[in-house]
Each structure stands twice: as structure tokens, then as C-alpha cells.
Design a protein that fits this description.
By secondary structure, this protein is an alpha/beta fold. Helix content is about 50%, strand content about 15%. The chain is built from eight helices and seven strands, in the order βαβαααβαβαββαβα. Helix 6 crosses helix 7. It binds BIS(adenosine)-5'-pentaphosphate (AP5). BIS(adenosine)-5'-pentaphosphate binds next to helix 1, helix 2, helix 3, helix 6 and strand 6. The site of BIS(adenosine)-5'-pentaphosphate has 34 residues, from helix 1, helix 2, helix 3, helix 6 and strand 6.
Length: about 210
Amino acid sequence: MINIIFIAPPAAGKGTYSKKLEEEFGYSHLATGDMLREAINLKTPLGLKVKDIMAQGKLVDDEIVINLIAEKLGQDGKPFILDGFPRTLNQAEKLDVLLEKLAKDYIVINLDVKKEVALARIQGRLMCSCGKSYNALIPSLKPKREGICDVCGQKLIKREDDNEESFLIRYNSYLEKTEPIINYYSQNQKLVKIDASRSAQEVYQDLIEVIKW
Ligand code: AP5
């Protein structure tokens, strides 16, 4: 399977589709947001350093996330999905160096979603610490048992940064720092854009067609 890099605004569905692709095709799902949240839960020095920055919806330092990805990339020999990385041009350039060393090819998928649609989605999002994401307001994305993860049975929680104020900071940071990367990848002819404002089923169907090319 081809390696995937998701570039998308908050609540576009990066985590949702990464988990489905992991389950169905055996991808390794590398999500910098999940790695950082795990560090916060475990109260590691890294977690303590990034806790407030993440709660406010600001980006953490490039160096931190580049190191997290460099430690994991290609380690298990599976095809990988990068979810939430790269988010700046500097991260994209460093990633290209890493991928060249590992001789890994990839496709970049831009999940394009309207701001008001994304904002509505975070109001209902519930997360499990295993990384699976649900939505209490969307029938097809609800857990089978209220408040409990279908996969691991743990209690679902609301993310600390899932409020309108933090969402708007994340969304604006996407426009300012992450969207320019789309141009970087379109020059390398590695970019596919998918309309992610549609239902999760429709978007996933398109994703499968793209990766099976
Ligand atoms: P991160 O965890 O990456 O958050 P994000 O980019 O803000 O993205 P989200 O997790 O909010 O959205 P998603 O696209 O995964 O959506 P989901 O599938 O859950 O980053 C968090 C923070 O970590 C950053 O703000 C930053 O501080 C730091 N960080 C991380 N990486 C960094 C980096 N590289 N550099 C610097 N800092 C970094 O879906 C959302 C909801 O919608 C769910 O409820 C889901 O069920 C629902 N949903 C999904 N698809 C659909 C659909 N088609 N229809 C209806 N509902 C849907």
C-alpha cells in the first residue's frame, strides 16, 4: 500500500479515516497529536511542556514533533499514515529528508472541509485514549454504548482543545502555516484533494479509490 500524508484542518476527519485504514489495510497510524496527548496523560517532561500550548490550540515547536516522527517512522515495516504532520514548511522539508533516507514514496491527501462544518463536528467529538474518535451528534459515528469505546471498552472523553476558541486558533494556524504546504506538494505532483465536508462513508470510499490507484 502507498504511504499517506494527510494535510487537513482540524476536524476534517484525519483521525477517523486513519483508524479505518489502519483496521482495514494494516497501516501504521502516526499521529503527532495523539503522541503529544499520550505524553500529557503520562505527565512526562514533554507532556508538561506542551500541555498549555495544546489546550490553547497553538502549534508546538517544530523540533519536538520532528523528533517524535523520526523515532517512529518506518520502524514497524508497515505502510504508514501521517496524521497531523507536517504542519509547517520546515516540518515538510525535514520529513522529505527522512523519507529519502528511508527510500519511502508517499501520496499527500488534502481533506478539504468547510470551517462551519468542522466547527460543528468538534462540538460532538468524543475521543478514546486508544485514538479512536466518535461523534455523539452524528448517528453513524456514535459509539455502540454511550460514552464507551467500541474497540477497547475505555471511557470516552472530550478533548481539552475542543472548544470554539481553541478551534478558531487551530483553524487560523492551519490557514497561515499549514495550507502553504499544499503548494509545496502540488509542485512535486504528489497531491490529491478530497471534499471532506460530505458523509464519512462517501469520503472513505474516495480515499480507498485513491490509495488503490
Ligand atoms: P491534532 O490532534 O492533530 O488535532 P487537529 O489537527 O486539530 O485535528 P483534529 O484531531 O481536531 O481533527 P481530525 O481531522 O483528526 O478529525 P477527527 O477524525 O477526530 O493536534 C492537536 C494539537 O497538537 C495541535 O493543535 C498542536 O498543538 C499539536 N500538534 C500536533 N501535531 C503538530 C505538529 N505537526 N506541529 C506542531 N504542533 C502539533 O474528526 C472530528 C470529528 O468529526 C469526530 O467527532 C468525527 O467522528 C467527526 N467526523 C469525521 N468525519 C466526519 C464526516 N465526514 N461527517 C461527519 N462527522 C465526521
